[in-house]
Amino acid sequence: MKKENQAQIGTKAVWAGEKDYLVHGATQVPVIPSVAFGYDDMDEWYDVAIGKKKGHIYGRNTNPTVQAFEDKVKALEGAEAGTSFSTGMAAISNTLYTFLFPGDKVVTIKDTYGGTNKLFTEFLPKLQIEVVFCETGNHQQIEEELQKGCNMLYLETPTNPTVKITDIKRSAEAAKAVGALVVVDNTFATPINQTPLELGADLVIHSATKFLGGHADALGGVVVGNDSSLVESIYHYREINGATMDPWAAYLLLRGMKTLDLRVKRQAENAGRLAEFLETSDLVESVYYPGLPTHPNHEIACEQMRGFGGMLSFAVKGGVETVRELLPKLEYANRAANLGAVETTVGPARTTSHVECTPEERAAMGIPEGLIRVSCGIEDGEDIVADFKQAIEAVSLLLKIEG
Ligand SMILES: *Cc1c(COP(=O)(O)O)cnc(C)c1O
């Protein structure tokens, strides 16, 4: 038997979670699209139905392909338990709705993902759940708010799109002191760069749609944790609520995850190179990348992350007008509302992560209208830098002529 638990994370990405699901000597986990699972033995059926015996009953609850996906994520995050969802937003909303009740309070940061921010500003208040937004990176404010009493600390680090960093360990300690549940969205970092459970988080969430899958061809979400009763509660909410991952998506995500370590390392390398180049450009006002020594939370990033990830953003002079000219000139980039794919993907924050917000709301979050989010792909770094260089040069020339 292979000792997967002791293996390095790149090895786990390839091997973990699969062997229980292989059949007929196949070396790959099969897609099992069956909606229901049949039993000739009524007693066995009953035992599986009440959870006394391992097995599957109905696809909304569990499915073998989907479970293999969950098992691989568990191995990568070093978690005891996990459950999956149709999308990342389903993972987030199901987790919030499982644990929060009228009168409860959540402490979070201003820079969460746009959809998450909508849950906090629009949906939770309808249930009389209070959400307190702290300045991202202001640990003192987070601690002060937690000390007033709180049910859940919800973090995302690095954030979307300005890649701000929050100290997970420090914040989790303050949350634990008041008995608050600590939830971390680890989508941007990936388990290759950061494992929040080791830093004190109770639950770790991913939009598997992004880096875990990595090929922009399947939607999915997942929650993992070490306290299986917490995960069990979320699973119970989801099996009834019905935001179940599709087995075909699970297969694609599972296959994508095999190369997670390779991809994420290459993406981080490319992001570092591109960030350094952008810092030297006259058209660029500011560059946001946790790997840059100029990043305000660079030290915390060095402490809690093993790599700085493939995400960066930069603000261009001339705002939206410059963005409009610049992005179409990139040859090797998809202009799309996605991230974490093997192809470099770009988009303005106002059209992608924070399209749900008004310009005023974006300004309040420190998101300039001329902000471009870049998710670096696995192309050759030289080509990516050269591509941005030619696009910036062409736009600089154009703006100079017009000006
Ligand atoms: C995309 C994303 C989500 C939402 O995931 P979906 O799969 O699109 O529902 C949540 N958090 C972060 C950080 C994301 O980037």
UniProtKB/TrEMBL annotation:
The protein, known as: homocysteine desulfhydrase
EC number: 4.4.1.2
Keyword vocabulary terms for this entry: Pyridoxal phosphate
Stored InterPro entries: Cys/Met-Metab_PyrdxlP-dep_enz, PyrdxlP-dep_Trfase, PyrdxlP-dep_Trfase_major, PyrdxlP-dep_Trfase_small
Family the entry assigns: Belongs to the trans-sulfuration enzymes family.
Reaction catalyzed: L-methionine + H2O = methanethiol + 2-oxobutanoate + NH4(+); L-homocysteine + H2O = 2-oxobutanoate + hydrogen sulfide + NH4(+) + H(+)
GO function terms (MF aspect): homocysteine desulfhydrase activity; methionine gamma-lyase activity; pyridoxal phosphate binding
SUPFAM superfamilies: PLP-dependent transferases
Provenance organism: Alkalicoccobacillus porphyridii
UniProt xrefs under NCBIfam families: PRK08249.1
GO terms, biological process: transsulfuration
